[in-house]
Amino acid sequence: MATNLQFLKTAKATSTTSISITDCFTSNSDVYAITMNNLSGSSGSPSQVSLRFIDNTDSPITTANYDTAVLTMIASSSFTETKNTNQTDSELFGYADYPPESSQSILYVFNPTDTSSYTFFTVQNSSAVSSDMYGHKGIGVLTETTEVTGIQFLAHSNNFDSGTISVYGVQ
Q1: Using one digit for the tens of pLDDT, what is the confidence trace for 18-42?
Q2: Prediction pTM value
Q3: Helix (H) or strand (E) run with residue 21 in it
Q4: Count of H helices and E strands in the chain?
Q5: Which residues of the chain register pLDDT less than 70?
Q6: Could you read off the pLDDT of 153-165 as tens digits, one per residue?
Q7: Which of 34, 91, 109, 162 has a 20 to 30 Å separation from 10 between CA atoms?
Q8: Distance (Å) of CA 24 to CA 12, 38, 99, 156, 163
Q9: What is the DSSP string of 32-76?
Q10: C-alpha–C-alpha distance, residues 145 and 118, integer Å
Q11: Dihedral sign, Cα of residue 157, residue 159, residue 60, residue 71
């Protein structure tokens, strides 16, 4: 894999249930790296974080075509594996909890604008939730050949109150 990163876009979370970054995937690259830093929620109850891709009309792709597998590693208990098919989003990103606890992730997206291929992704995440540490390693695929030009992150409960998401093209 290429090793040069080209910064493309960034977004900051401020009292919102979703963070969308549009027009960040182009035909200039086949691989993208996305970082999520210090993502925190708005209350003491942790919120599951998930993703949806955005199509070339700037609409989130909500069809039940997301397939994922994730290994969840919790410091205080055993590890678990979860596999999901035909979902309307991808829950690979752990939790956003109330500060000072937060979530960090690195996500790689492959072939998002190629309309002759599915869009694949991998993720590694660490989250602090209620004084416990969680790690997640996951893979996923959007099983349709839609031209993907952006990405959306969702909080399943509460709001995102802080955090930065940055998108890089891998050259």
Answers
A1: 899 999 999 999 999 999 988 777 7
A2: 0.90
A3: strand 18-21
A4: 0, 12
A5: 1-2, 43-47, 93-100
A6: 988 777 777 889 9
A7: 91
A8: 15, 21, 28, 24, 18
A9: EEEEEEEEEESSSS-EEEEEEEEETTS-B--SS-EEEEEEEEETT
A10: 5
A11: negative
